[in-house]
Amino acid sequence: MCCRYETVATNEYLWWATDEQMDAVSVMFPKSHGVSRIDDRAVLSAIVQVLRSGVLWRDVPADYRIKWKTVYNRFVRWSQDGVMDATLCALTEPAQDEVRLVVSADDLLRHRSGELWADRGFFPGVMSLA
Q1: 88: helix, coil or strand?
Q2: What is the phi/psi pair of residue 104, to 5°?
Q3: Is residue 32 in a domain?
Q4: How far is the C-alpha of 114 from the C-alpha of 65, rounded, in Å?
Q5: 73-119 per-position pLDDT tens digit
Q6: How far apart are CA 120 and CA 17, in angstroms?
Q7: What percent of the chain has pLDDT over 90?
Q8: Which residues form the Insertion element IS402-like domain (predicted)?
Q9: Does residue 88 sit within a domain?
Q10: Between β-strands 13-16 and 92-95, what pairing exists: parallel, antiparallel or unpaired?
Q11: Residue 42: which of 58, 26, 56, 28 has the closest Cα?
Q12: How far apart are the first and last CA of the chain?
């Protein structure tokens, strides 16, 4: 199965990582230090949704049930640690006779935060695939 999309009341499609995708990328996430973390699937799915749609972090759809600040902070921390680049390079979905990245370099550069962090050199893997 590819990525899960869910339709919400606003007719917006929300992207959710599949079990296969989470199995592939969960080993890249840093370990929790005593305090249980918020669901990595929901955080990762919200990050991908924001980057793909180009909305502000404050406009993370409420259906993810995560505060926008948590999603943004995790994006920043994972970007600085190199986790986000490796994760985005590993996340693919089938497209007509090919496999494509869930977030392309164009999607990343279209978002203000993505462009800022890409300019600082935090996404060499994604940018090299452009």
Answers
A1: helix
A2: -85, 170
A3: no
A4: 22
A5: 999 999 999 999 999 988 887 777 777 778 888 888 899 898 888 89
A6: 27
A7: 42
A8: 18-86
A9: yes
A10: unpaired
A11: 26
A12: 25
